[in-house]
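Contributing new records

If you add data, match the layout below exactly. Sequence lines come first and carry their own label; structure lines follow with theirs. Keep one chain per record. Anything else will be rejected by the validation script.
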Amino acid sequence: MDSIFNTSVTQVIKQRHSVRNYANTPIAQDILKKLEDYLTTVDNPFGQKIRIQLITKDSSTQEFKLGTYGVIKGARYFLAAACENTDQALIALGYTLEKVILYCTSLGLGTVWLGGTFNKGEFAKAMHLKEDEILPIVSPIGYQGGKKSFIATLIGENTNKRKPYHELFFNQNFSTPLASDVSDVYFEPFEMLRLAPSALNKQPWRVVREEHLLHFYLASNKGLTKIDMGIALCHFHLTTIQNHIQGKFITLDASKYPQNKDFTYIMSWTQLL
């Protein structure tokens, strides 16, 4: 995994931040070639087909109004991600696009997740969206630079804030927070999950640890939360691979595991010993 990013996964995750203002500088051709090659091989552990396309604002796309409603300034390149309209596909989309975004970070490129503030109809035309696909997310990519838009300035730095560890991770049940100093091999994967971006920075996911089983939950099934879950699972999974923790994602009978009226069971992870 390190060979993909040319550095540790954890370092790339910590380097990633939201960029809403881009310099009027073309991305170097060798960098674009690396990115396009990576898009042909990037995968996910959920067996879902996710289509991610690099779209460039140039003469070939001038017929499309690839707008972001004033949120993004100066972007010439975008990643558009499409999938089937199912819960599992949306989770896989979040996982897969975050993997690509982390790869962009390792190449020195800025990115930011856009779920509602882009012209979906025009982007759909530009990537020739299929009848069985939806286009919930795009991300501009490029070199950070220039002044922020007025809207981006209003958004401010709140997107960098994160909930504390004990509010996200639990031991055996939802009544017992999991202390970071007793998380064992999962401390770093959990910490990287904690740093994952999410819509409106709500961090809707929770994790309950039961011995060698980890159960992942969502606070809401609405909006972009399934994609948020996929992003978080990407951070977790890539870190377990880096740290040589063997395991796999599985779906269990939710009624047999910790319940909470405020959270919906999504899936589990079992460690392979």
